[in-house]
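lol ok so funny story. i was supposed to be doing the assay writeup but got distracted and ended up predicting the structure for this chain instead. priorities right. anyway since i did it might as well share w the group, maybe its usefull for someone
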Amino acid sequence: MARLNADLTINQTASVSKSTIEPMKNYQVGDIKSLIDSAKTALVVVPQISVDGIAAALGLAIALKKKNIETRVFCPQKTDNNYSKLSGLELLTESLSSGDLMVSLSYPLDQIENVSYNDDGGKLNLIVKTKSGSPKIESNQIEIKNESSLADVAFILGEETALGVNSGIVNNGNWVYISPANNPKTWAKASLVDPDAPFSEIFSFLLPMLGLELDVDSGKNLLIGMRVATQSFSVNVSPESFEAGAICLRATQPAEEAPVSPSQPTPIENIEKSGNLTPGTNKPNPTPTI
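and the output, tada:
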């Protein structure tokens, strides 16, 4: 009986320990979540190309699109065959142009009656009607801009200086800065810095924290990104790296899928069979030579 009671005590202790395990990452995501919750469009910027960066950006973009947020990913460098196994490559763009035009008036709002427009033979007229007795709007009070924010919320994975002539894009809009480098940005509405993880690992934990779905495609992308950044989990790894890998691996497995027998390829091998991804770190990948 004493042995039975001891076994019960051990089992109960083990059960409590498992139920009280805390997440391995505890990012502060309130500000980021608020920006996403109010957004209809999103932009993800990868200033310096790498499999890890592109995989993380596409994983985020896929998750945002499933939340009905129109999303695109900008990277100034072109991808090559090293990226061919990633999902969502059609979301990549090399253009940052915005079709929006913004007309700003340095004029008191309480003195404006209404704003309207009309079509004058194919010419658009904007009409600002001031209240009776209000002063006339002078030409020097009118400012026209064709560089409005590129999206309701924008993410940048790394340093904006790597964008060169496009680095000024961070001066407009609601930007989320995500980086392994603790380099505070005054233009960022929210920041997430994790010096111990590649981008794909960061997003493996971040997406669920933001209430975004980690599905087969986004999970596969993040898993590929981590494998490349860590040389198949052999360098620059931590316990969190393996936990992130497990999270992504579970996301790629349909619930109804039968268990894989020992004689069959393992699930992680099924996800990435080609072997054409160049192992490396969170740095730009070298261009393959023929």
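The chain has two domains: 30-98+149-254+264-271, 102-145. Helices lie at 2-19, 30-37, 51-66, 199-209, 216-229, 239-251, 267-271.
back to the writeup now i swear
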